[in-house]
Design a protein that fits this description.
This protein is mainly alpha-helical and about 110 residues long. Helices cover about 55% and strands about 5% of the residues. It contains two helices and two strands; from the N terminus they run ββαα. A two-stranded antiparallel ribbon has the order 1-2. Strand 1 and strand 2 form a beta hairpin. The longest helix is centred in the middle third of the chain and has 56 residues. The protein is rod-shaped. It starts with about 20 loop residues before the first strand and ends with a helix.
């Protein structure tokens, strides 16, 4: 080496981002911004899907409640009919089963009044 000069080492520039890999033949494009944007987009899609799910679940719950109320109402009506039948069961007229199908209306009325 000529004179008193120290050998100069060629140093590569330190990268500011240690997670950004060095590209072969050049620097790679930083995609963190793109990934963050995608993550935000997916997060919004998840929020939207969850809101739709909640609305549908509430609608199904309301429909279920209405259906249950209708069924309870029908059940109460059936109980009323059964109660009516039980209260009037002593007043039922039974006709002979063999001749009932061949009797005229007048004959049936006469059988009931007897």
């Amino acid at each position: 080496m000529p004179g008193n000069q120290q050998p100069v080492l060629a140093l590569t520039a330190l990268r500011a981002d240690p997670y950004r890999p060095a590209a072969r033949g050049g620097d790679m494009r930083d995609i963190r911004g793109d990934l963050e944007e995608r993550a935000k987009t997916y997060q919004e899609q998840i929020k939207t899907a969850y809101a739709q799910f909640e609305m549908i679940a509430q609608q199904l719950q309301r429909e279920r409640d209405v259906r249950i109320a209708d069924l309870k109402s029908l059940l109460m009506m059936v109980h009323k009919v059964i109660e009516f039948e039980e209260s009037h069961s002593g007043k039922v007229v039974t006709l002979p089963s063999t001749s009932v199908q061949h009797m005229t209306l007048a004959e049936r009325m006469a059988a009931v009044s007897d």
